[in-house]
Design the sequence.
């Protein structure tokens, strides 16, 4: 037939196809499970119009998919064979009384095949601002008439389908909003920074749990307080203000505060984030203190190096420029020699200290160590036999070996013993106890050096490990004030402990405790 | 011309000897090893020039003593030369702020010390 050849069997694409498809996709209805709210409408339509088939058909890009179907075995069919694709092109109900007599459908597979479609009536389902996503349609295997009253009925049923779709859409929107609000809530709940919301006058409206924790009170208590009470500043937009946070109990903490303005429902608010920076501040203070110590150390070191240099330069210049008798000349040369010796000793000890300080435990050569043997070496190393004889060892039985650097430990103990000998009467005894001792549950051994000398005041005990500090009461005692500093550093790199017990005028007791497992071998010794 | 009198205060015996030998051509040089010992001597008689170490170990510091002496009417006219192994600009400024007439940094050249001391004695 001429008509069959000239008229296309598949429907033209609607003018708003792209937008229509987008609306359909956003509804999230395609390929969704059956839904009673639509099924009851198709059941109703089939009964009402006394037809075998009623469908809610959604027109996808290249198929029609049935959201609800009565009397239809297929979940969908190709769009090219779809009656509904035609129905969505017109505003009103589309009626095909006899498909065999309609050029658009006479050769349609649904008409020619087993389905045997003869009658079709479909009303577009129109969503929101006019996107026709599909139809409510009824189908029969015999040709039928479809009067105006029936058209109205089908149109009304299609409108009910559209309402149900709109209701679903509203529900989906509400769910999306709920989920988005829940995400924001969870974000605020878990944010480590405190968040405070102020009204324009600076009164707290709301806060997050971090802020509750930070300021030590629940939101209901914080709400209504002025910003100045908690963060000490009037609320205005500010970035990274370094200030003080005040908890409700009056205690304070170092806080970094940022405030931003925001508008909500036409009203102005201020939102502040508060970060507890106590740790950060403490860290900065530690760095500053370390820098101060380093500066003090270099200042003192420079002073201590310049002092013997003053003698060396001064006396040598006098010797070069003036005439002295032989005895005086010799005396001056003796001073120069003594000060130069002191200078080189100082330089060596400073280098030693720097090496221990910078190398840490990596510079150690630990080995299993018998502290009694080490003390015997210290005693044997004292050249003056009379001084050496003042030392009395008291080793306990069953001493454990400790894992430590033999040379460093000997150096530390020798320094302590030298101090004990120097700051006590020349004939008094120096007792050295060596015993197993656990500290904080860690096994180890302690060496305790006790003298019967001048002792130290509490202030002197604090200062004794400071670099270049010397007990000033005895200017004739040789030394450079670095000995105990070196002891402190050696004990520290061994993860040990040093304690000084002294009563002024009643002797000093210095103990060094070393852990049994000690430090592990550094890379150098492996 | 009367003999000028110079008091050297330093806790280091070698330094006291060095200064005594260096300045003996200028007059009579006496010594003290601490601020306290110096105060005891000053209570007896006030010299023309005080050469004062800044770091004196424990006890009153040289700076403190310098301030004290410049504030007291009996010693305000005495010339004071501070002597120190601390030679930073801030150290010198602190010394002059304490009222010192001169600040000498250790180590020093004896010849230069003689010139500086002579300048103070004649000034």
Sequence:
């Amino acid at each position: 037939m001429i008509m069959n050849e000239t008229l296309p069997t598949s429907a033209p694409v609607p003018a708003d196809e792209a937008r229509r498809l987008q609306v359909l996709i956003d509804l999230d209805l395609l390929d969704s499970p059956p839904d009673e709210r639509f099924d009851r409408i198709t059941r109703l339509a089939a009964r009402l119009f006394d037809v075998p088939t009623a469908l809610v058909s959604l027109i996808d890009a290249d198929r029609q998919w049935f959201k609800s179907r009565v009397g239809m075995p297929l979940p969908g069919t190709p769009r090219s064979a779809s009656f509904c694709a035609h129905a969505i092109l017109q505003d009103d109900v589309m009626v095909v009384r006899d498909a065999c007599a309609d050029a658009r459908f006479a050769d349609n597979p649904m008409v020619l095949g087993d389905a045997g479609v003869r009658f079709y009536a479909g009303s577009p389902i129109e969503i929101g601002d006019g996107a026709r996503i599909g139809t409510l349609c009824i189908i029969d295997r015999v040709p039928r008439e479809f009067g105006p009253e029936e058209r109205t009925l089908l149109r009304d049923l299609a409108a009910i389908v559209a309402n149900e779709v709109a209701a679903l859409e509203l529900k989906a929107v509400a769910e999306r909003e709920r989920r988005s609000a829940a995400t924001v809530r969870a974000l605020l709940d878990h944010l480590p920074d405190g968040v405070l919301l102020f009204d324009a006058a600076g009164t707290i409206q709301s806060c997050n749990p971090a802020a509750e924790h930070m300021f030590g009170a629940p939101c209901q208590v914080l709400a209504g307080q002025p910003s100045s009470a908690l963060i000490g500043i009037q609320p205005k937009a500010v970035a990274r203000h370094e200030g003080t946070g005040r908890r409700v109990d009056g205690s304070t903490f170092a806080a970094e505060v940022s405030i931003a303005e925001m508008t909500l429902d036409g009203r102005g608010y201020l939102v502040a984030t508060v970060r507890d920076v106590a740790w950060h501040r403490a860290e900065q203070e530690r760095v500053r203190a370390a820098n101060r110590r380093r500066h003090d150390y270099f200042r003192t070191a420079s002073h201590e190096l310049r002092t013997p240099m003053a003698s060396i330069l001064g006396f040598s210049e006098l010797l070069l420029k003036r005439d002295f008798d032989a005895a005086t000349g010799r005396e001056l040369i003796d001073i120069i020699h003594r000060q130069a010796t002191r200078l080189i000793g100082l330089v060596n000890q400073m280098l030693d200290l720097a090496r221990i300080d910078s190398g840490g435990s990596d510079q150690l050569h630990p080995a299993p160590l018998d502290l009694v043997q080490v003390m015997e070496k210290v005693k044997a190393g004292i050249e003056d036999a009379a001084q050496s004889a003042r030392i009395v060892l008291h080793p306990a039985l069953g001493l454990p070996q400790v894992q430590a650097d033999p040379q460093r430990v000997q150096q530390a103990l020798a320094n302590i013993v030298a101090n004990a000998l120097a700051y006590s009467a020349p004939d008094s005894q120096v007792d050295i106890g060596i015993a197993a001792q656990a500290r904080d549950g860690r096994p180890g051994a302690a060496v305790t050096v006790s003298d019967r000398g001048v002792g130290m005041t509490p202030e002197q005990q604090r200062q004794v490990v400071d670099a270049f500090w010397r007990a000033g009461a005895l200017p004739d005692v040789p030394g450079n004030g670095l000995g105990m500093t070196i002891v402190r550093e050696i004990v520290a790199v061994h993860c040990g402990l040093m304690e000084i017990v002294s009563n002024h005028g009643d002797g000093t007791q210095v103990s060094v405790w070393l852990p049994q497992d000690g430090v592990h071998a550094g890379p150098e010794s492996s | 011309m009367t003999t000028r009198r110079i008091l050297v205060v330093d806790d280091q015996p070698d330094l006291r000897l060095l200064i005594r030998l260096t300045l003996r051509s200028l007059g009579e040089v006496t010594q003290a090893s601490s601020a306290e010992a110096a105060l005891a001597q000053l209570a007896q008689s006030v010299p023309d020039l005080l050469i004062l170490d800044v770091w004196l170990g424990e006890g009153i510091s040289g700076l403190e003593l310098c301030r004290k002496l410049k504030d007291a009417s009996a010693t305000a006219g005495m010339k004071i030369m501070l002597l120190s192994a601390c030679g930073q600009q801030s150290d010198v400024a602190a010394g002059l702020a304490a009222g010192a007439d001169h600040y000498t940094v250790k180590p020093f050249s004896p010849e230069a010390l003689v010139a500086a001391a002579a300048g103070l004695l004649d000034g």
